Amino acid sequence: MSDSIKELLDELPSNNLTVKTLNALDFVVPGQWENIVGFNQTIEVITGESDADRILDIGNKAIELYNDADNGYQGAMWYYNLVDNVDGALGTAAMASKIGEKIGFLSFLDRITPKADTTQSVDLCLKIVAELIAYSKLNGLPILNPGEFVTSLSEEYTGPSLMRMATLVCLDGLLPLGPDFLQKVQTTLEEQGEGALAKNPAFGAISDTIPEDDKVGFIANTFGAVQGWMDNLVGSVGLTPESIFNSIGGFIEFSDDSLDFVAAFLDKTTNYFQHTGTQTVARKLIERAAEEA
């Protein structure tokens, strides 16, 4: 990747639609996420250091560690970037499909774009797999199996990592697919499987990294493993599409019967995976740099 970790952190926005959306979803995992931006500021917050020379030393070490591709930090960032880069196209396709459903003379759009539920189901699954691979790379591990990953998710995820997964449940699960999103995704995998995945550009980009010969099986098993965690999150918070919309409705002007439009719009206009992914990589990297500098 061409961007250095310093550039990535310095260029993180302090307030845009992605940040507004993440702040609005803070109620799902209260107090877990703070929008820390800027390279030196991130070092100060993560390490508690205030000495300028010490911050400089940690920063130089962090840059050195990040630039060594063998460490996996750049690899993790690649996956966090990938799913958001694809989201713009998926958001457009989902929006076109929904317009086709709701406006009769545009119904031809349904024949040239994926059904929104199928698109969103595949998107959700591939984001989870991308998260699994990114986590493995970030921690210097072989690609985890789904059972190992869900254990890490349950026991280790905090801060921006937990915020990212909670946002995934909200924006890629409940909001576009409804309260029965887990069943809808499961049905898509069972009934369409490889056919639905093959049409997704993210699948083409990451398929070579997915372990095992049965790529579809690995994706299905990963979703199955994380399904319980997602269900527990929804139940523990009492999450509904309406509660999510009520939180983000302050800055998005859609009627409350247009949740599918909101989901497609956010797919196209936010990059929460990349934003929180950068912060996740930074935390892991800077903690190590502080130990080694």
| Percentage of residues in DSSP E strands | under 5%
Mean pLDDT across the residues is 87
Main beta sheet: none
Low-confidence stretches: 103-109
Characterization of this structure:
With 293 residues, the protein is mainly α. It has a domain at 75-277. The chain is 71% helix and 0% strand. It has 15 helices and no strands. It has helices spanning 5-10, 17-24, 39-47, 52-67, 73-102, 116-138, 146-156, 159-177, 181-191, 193-198, 201-206, 215-237, 241-248, 259-269, 272-292. The chain is globular. The protein starts with a helix and ends with a helix. The model is unreliable at 103-109 (pLDDT under 50).
List its traits.
293 residues; 0% strand; mainly alpha; 15 helices; single chain
Task: Record the SSE blueprint.
Layout: H1 5-10, H2 17-24, H3 39-47, H4 52-67, H5 73-102, H6 116-138, H7 146-156, H8 159-177, H9 181-191, H10 193-198, H11 201-206, H12 215-237, H13 241-248, H14 259-269, H15 272-292
Summarize the structure.
By secondary structure, the chain is mainly α. It contains 15 helices and no strands. The chain has a domain at 75-277.
